[in-house]
Amino acid sequence: MRFRVILVRHGETRYNKAKLLQGQGVDEPLSEFGSKQAKAAGQALSKIKFSHVFSSDLQRAKQTASAILSENICGHKLQINCDPKLRERKYGIVEGKPLSELRALAKAAGQRCPAFTPPGAETVDEVQARAKEFFNYLCNDLMQHAEKVNTVPDCIDAVAEYSEDLHSSFKHLNSADSSSCNINNSISHKAEDIIATVLIVSHGGFMLQWVSYFVKDLKCPLPLCFDQSKAFSVCPNAGISSFVVTFDQIAVSSPQIICDYLYDCSHLEDIGV
To answer: Which of 12, 88, 95, 122 is catalytic?
Structure first.
């Protein structure tokens, strides 16, 4: 069984722009510029026929997911499933405060971000456990659905119908780190192989641990054109990543992961990013 995950970070908020930590305690909406970013991400993904849509239940993520679907050719048919497991990392006493304050606390403790855990915050291991829990839930849910119908899920249109759309949607996208990397050439599997395409909208700190889990634990290779040193940095607002997941009933806990592209932001160039 093989499916694709499109992972998107929410658009910018006022707190992002001011470099203030939001975490889970500050439920800030998108700024005007963040709404433009979310719309641009939606336009870049407008021809992808998603089978499932998941979002953090914080409003900056929900608003981004809604904007993406509003630009999508089949978005009106889809429901956004909000899941608290996709929330940003909880930052405890530094939520609502400058990022510089977190770094100062980490330095005083002889540690570095993001490994440092301020009082009242989640550890990075706890955030990664949330990411792993959600991913396992997603794999099991898709497998059970496929078994029930003994074919592709009911909510997915004929795969052949969107085969060309999947590739053309990324026709003009280039790697965020190398203009010589062609996204079309980096797509790892033809659409005929994909039984589901899942959109997930989340947050920078959460996504950092998601990518770390994929790369370090599940040995997911990154595209050769991607600057490998940026794999464990925070995804820019409205950045897009794509992964193809392959697993079977015997080895659900050890899927094979391929990254088509990571933290792509080329769709934001026309709005000043």
So the answer is: 88
Instruction: Using the structure block, give the residue that is written with the tokens 């970070």.
Output: 9
Q: With a cut of 80, say whether residue 155 has pLDDT above it.
A: no
Distance in angstroms (rounded) separating the CA atoms of residues 200 and 205? 14
Cis peptide before 114 (omega within 30 of 0): yes
Quick check: helix, strand or coil at residue 75?
helix
Catalytic pick from 10, 52, 145, 267? Answer: 10
CB count in 10 Å sphere of residue 261: 25
CA 250 vs CA 131, 174, 204, 254: distances in Å: 22, 36, 33, 9
- Name the average pLDDT for the chain: 85
CB 219 within 8 A of CB 244: no
Query: From the CB of residue 101, how many other CB atoms can be counted at a distance below 10 Å?
Result: 14
pTM of the model: 0.86
Whether 10 is a known active-site residue: answer: yes
Ramachandran angles phi, psi of 151, nearest 5°: -165, -160
- Rounded to an integer, what distance in angstroms lies between the CA atom of residue 216 and that of residue 213? 6
Give the separation between CA 190 and CA 4, rounded to whole angstroms: 11
Q: Is 32 a catalytic residue?
A: no
As given in the structure block, the two tokens for residue 116 are 């440092």
Calpha distance 224→142 (Å, rounded) = 29
Q: Are 225 and 181 in contact (CB under 8 A)?
A: yes
How many angstroms separate the CA atoms of 59 and 82, rounded?
Answer: 10
Return d(Cα 150, Cα 110) in angstroms, integer: 55
pLDDT in tens, 77-129: 899 999 999 999 999 999 999 999 999 999 999 999 989 999 999 999 999 99
Q: In what order do the strands lie in the sheet with 240-246?
A: 80-82, 52-55, 196-202, 2-9, 240-246, 256-264
